[in-house]
Amino acid sequence: MLNINNLHAKIGDKPILRGINFTVNPGEVHAIMGPNGSGKSTLCQVLGGREGYEITEGSVEFDGKDLLELSTEERAVAGLLLGFQHPVEIPGVKNIYLLKEAINAQRAAQGLEEMDTFAFMKRIKELVKTMGMDDAFLHRGVNAGFSGGEKKRNEILQMLLLQPKLALLDETDSGLDIDALKVVSEGINLLRGADRGIVLVTHYQRLLSYVEPDFVHILYKGRIIKSGDKSLALQLEAEGYQDFLEAAS
Ligand code: ADP
Ligand code: MG
Ligand code: MG
Fold this sequence. Notes:
It holds the Pfam family ABC_tran. The two termini are 31 Å apart. The longest helix is centred in the middle third of the chain and has 15 residues, at 95-109. The chain is 39% helix and 28% strand. The chain has one domain (2-247): 3-Layer(aba) Sandwich (Rossmann fold). It has helices spanning 40-48, 72-78, 95-109, 117-130, 148-162, 178-191, 205-210, 230-239, 242-248; strands at residues 2-11, 14-24, 29-33, 54-62, 65-66, 80-82, 90-94, 141-142, 166-170, 197-201, 215-220, 223-228. One magnesium ion binds at residues 36, 41.
């Protein structure tokens, strides 16, 4: 589904990604770990099509398409959806309005008509409940005054509504207390499916004890220096990064 081949990217003059190779097949959950400043967020941003990055080498194929040729919107329509490490605040726009816009934009791109308001409300209320949120949050400004945990719940709610083929979640666990972490993890587990790929960026093993990844990759200085199964995350938690980083340099 996603095939990243020798991807290099820079910000200004600074090379950040220095030859990333990795493949996500439908149904797989991949965790990307690594020390601060390794390029994890940059990789997510580049895949999501955010501006400010120059791709200097390599290719990315998504669902048979050349991903790097597509705009951010085209990527979302193609089914690649990026959550936010720091979800944006749009205080003047009600959350429910943005969610409705998002689903209808997706449907329009698929040649479907707008979702019936009743069906939309029913679905959204189910999801609000699933994510342990309050209905009132639907009528608040997008992310305005949301706690870190509420933003993350909202991010997963959006993913559950839009059902992307590939979900990219950058530090979905940062700033969550243990209860919020459980709810967000349950949401991610609901998102899991035979047709869907999930890429989770995380600093900690904690999330991965709730959402068991099929693969774990360590990103360091813009390269994947080691890949393994979920036991790699446990090993990292126990031993820290140092041995891996030394072995790689
Ligand atoms: P991670 O998510 O793994 O912590 P990032 O992708 O955020 O790492 O950052 C990778 C490197 O790119 C870091 O050295 C960081 O300082 C640098 N970087 C990130 N964003 C920018 C930017 N907008 N301008 C300049 N350098 C940046
Ligand atoms: Mg960081
Ligand atoms: Mg980051």
